[in-house]
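Need tokens for this chain, all 213 residues.
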Amino acid sequence: MRKSIRSFTPEIVPLDVVQSVVLGANRAPSSKNTQPWKLILVQGEALEKLRFDYIAAFNNGKPSTPEYVYGPDPLPEAYKKRAVELGKAFLTHKGIAREDKEKRREHDGENYKFFGAKQVFFLAVNKGEFGYGTFLDCGLFFQALITELDNRGLGSCPQYSVMSYPDILHKHIPNSDDLLFLLALPFGYTNKESIANSFVTEREGLDSFFRVI
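Here are the structure tokens for all 213 residues:
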């Protein structure tokens, strides 16, 4: 069962394993075999420099300036209810009280540390060369990537939150000015001692989204 992993061991996933994961995901379907996705792996010193700037931006209260809007604003009530319930459940699971603002901010800040992952994938498309279907194709590829990782016993956590600071990504990823970054995927070996990794989200019942005609 796939779930989001938010704490990783310091161990690096070998490059041959990473390449195998990416090649497997690259069999994802896309319209007319267009394969519009671009995938960038950041690790080592490059990732540490990127992480440093992200943490500084978050701690300094830098305004969010995403290059695309992920979902409807405001959220439909049903979606909002699920999002609020998730937030409450996860904080409760970690033992963080609603009124503990310092701990809540520390919790939020973990996003900008990429949850301590030593390797992070960044998914992108060429600017000016995408439509709704392109995003769907990229989603299929991204899910395939997650599945390939999971099949090898590796954890990951999809992130839109770090799209808040695209200028930082463009600064640290060479030759990326013509790319629109869509999502990040910290991944690695699961830290089995972390309480965050024992959290499992609720899912809607079959009747709420599935019907047979």
